[in-house]
Amino acid sequence: MENRNILHVQKLGFQWQAESPFLVTMHHRDAYPAGNEEQGPNVSLAGRNLGEDFTIKDGFRMYHGEKVPGFPYHPHRGFETVTVVLEGFVDHFDSTGALGRYGNGDVQWMTAGKGCLHTEMFPLVHQDKGNPLELFQIWLNLPAKNKFAEPEYKMLWAEDIPVIQSVVDNGKKSTVRLIAGNLLGKDSLEPSKASWAKDKDNHVGIYLIKMEPEASFTFPAVSETLNRNVYYYEGNEISIGETVITSMNRVKLAGGTETTIINGSAESYLLVLEGEPIQEPVAQYGPFVMNTQEEIREAFRDYQQTQFGGWPWGRPDPVNERNSGRFARYSDGTIEKR
């Protein structure tokens, strides 16, 4: 029997396919060992393709890092990154002079806008035990009118992110962490100023759902034009009507009707991305997302000529002091500590 609430099902790979206003999502999960004095892995890195290490070996990857895992300085223009850290830490440095460390439930919302350089390094702060890391990085497009916004980032600290609990008749519970949008009568924290998510009429939602065994959760009807994607990344199986879906699948749901998900016999974890599409052409090449190929060429020229303001940090892969804790220092000098 046809399930009209399900529009598409797709297996998940390393990069998770997204739909406007989102561009792509990456899920990183690495079992890093204890750290050394440089906050890198305290094990031999022999046999790795350092600088381009994207193959799991001994439970982890170094990505583009050579001493500390992660992503040394690189440019972006024309979109935003929303980095959701479930476990572990990320060190941020950028070309505006901002820096910080966040993790263990924190979310960084960064608007690249007209262009910036930034890092995402994964410091291994614990020397006496392992340093597991799990995070999502979500790329959210900017409309043409905001693609040249001033670069900025803001922190959505774990303690401040709204948490919603939905309990059904059998007493089983679903817990939702609302990163963006409105759900079940609650509003998220504010996104960045230039974001497509700033206008509530764009119905941008980013949220994580943890479902107990046999729990259910109902997505509300929003609009016929809404793109709603559910990334079922951990668990056994869920059911939507008579359709059974196993984990590691993307499920596109109709945005204009209510849809109920019923969990199976194991805990399930889902990431939900939804929003009204940006009705504009997309031209993307590597770290730049614009509307035309000429704008992409312009982005490369600007980066080659200006380095988007240059890099003030002395090394391409800086990290904070081991005991710095969670904090943000913004380009205007404002400091937040957690």
TrEMBL record:
Domain (Pirin C-terminal): give its ranges: 209-309
Listed CDD domains: cupin_pirin_N
Question: What domain of life does the native source organism fall in?
Answer: Bacteria
Q: Where is this region: Disordered?
A: 307-338
What positions does the domain Pirin N-terminal occupy?
51-140
Q: Which family does the entry's similarity section mention?
A: Belongs to the pirin family.
Q: What is this protein called?
A: Pirin family protein
The beginning of the lineage is: Bacteria, Bacillati, Bacillota, Bacilli, Bacillales
